[in-house]
Design goal:
Blueprint lengths: L3 H12 L2 H9 L10 H10 L2 H6 L7 H17 L4 H4 L3 H18 L4
Length: 111
């Protein structure tokens, strides 16, 4: 799939950016395909991100697999909530920080 990794990284980076989430998810300042939490999850599914992690198609190390699996678990368990609540929630802020680390890990690979 053309630009698969670019599209996945785009979503992960938006999950790691509270300013983006506030501007797009809460205030609706501009349109973006990652318009909310659900669209972020759906886009990751559309690009088979979760399957690629499960089957280690990216080539991550064992430690990186543990980090990304922990991120995915927290992300999916959090679920779709009111965006105004989300961006101020400490659990969500932890997921945002975790997604920053996952983004840095994924940027190391050519996939």
């Amino acid at each position: 799939m053309v630009n698969k990794s670019v599209n996945i990284l785009d979503v992960i980076e938006k999950l790691s950016n509270l300013d983006f989430q506030n501007d797009v998810w809460v205030k609706g300042k501009y349109w973006d395909r990652v318009a909310n939490y659900s669209e972020a999850i759906n886009t990751l599914e559309d690009y088979n991100f979760f399957d690629d992690l499960t089957n280690n198609r990216i080539g991550l190390t064992k430690e990186e697999i543990n980090i990304t699996n922990s991120f995915v678990k927290k992300l999916l368990e959090y679920g779709n909530r009111n965006p105004s609540y989300m961006i101020s929630d400490n659990i969500w802020k932890d997921i945002v920080k975790h997604s920053q680390l996952v983004s840095e890990i994924l940027k190391r690979y050519d996939w």
